[in-house]
Amino acid sequence: MAVKAYLRPKSPSEALALIEGDERAALIGGGAYLRLASRGYETAVDLCDAGLDRVRVEDGALRLGAMVTYRRLETDLVVRDCSGGLLGRCVENIVGVQVRNIVTVGGTVAGRYAFANLTTALLALGADVVLARGGRKPLEQFLADKAPARDVLVEVVVPTAVRRSAWRDLTRVRSDFAVLNVAAVDVGGEVRVAVGARPGVARLARGAMQAAAAGDARGAGEAAAAELDFGDDLRASADYRRRVCGALVTRALEEVLA
Description:
Blueprint: E1 3-7, H1 12-20, E2 25-28, E3 41-46, E4 55-58, E5 61-65, H2 70-75, H3 77-82, H4 86-91, H5 97-100, H6 105-111, H7 117-125, E6 128-131, E7 135-138, H8 139-144, E8 153-159, E9 162-170, E10 180-187, E11 190-196, E12 203-204, H9 206-213, H10 217-227, H11 238-257
Parallel strand pairs: 1-3, 2-3
Antiparallel strand pairs: 4-5, 5-8, 6-7, 6-8, 9-10, 10-11, 11-12
Helix pairs in contact: 9-10, 10-11
């Protein structure tokens, strides 16, 4: 990756001003995937000095700065306790420790990567995102935005009222991207189910959530397979993903509802 100008702003507002003034600027929130790119960039705006690497609990929520790494999600006791261990479990097999020390919460969420385990887990947890210009909004709304404005993701806010959580994924090789991933969470008495790597970006399975509220894990699996759309790629066909979805949702909810 070739870069002509490399900038390190000291705050989210400074970063926002830099990318607003240069449509060709690339925002770097870790840079793991940008480093695989063959194209060049006029300007790289790196958030490493913008003060976005904090983990804290405030107003009954876990607040994860955009530059918090996957490795931090694995090892931080506050993150583990506040998310029922879900955030650490969903990333613990991503490639290797060296990569997990680079990949960040903000880079993953802002990139809207369809394959990302973390996005599925955060959606199930009922997380919000906080943007430098756009303010706070539900992650579900953020992911659904078809024409997002250029902005800087500052932090992700996660409810801490997690009673039980479960993670399931199917991979061809343990460290590979998932063929399909599923997160199920009991947050404050509400059971939420998210499915990702369909291969589209993660979505809530609302029919499955209704069945789960009635204590029907198998019915929830059938509902998720029926209501969500699936596609083909090199890892699996749409039909295979649909079949896997029913099984993984059922197993995740059996754990959460037990």
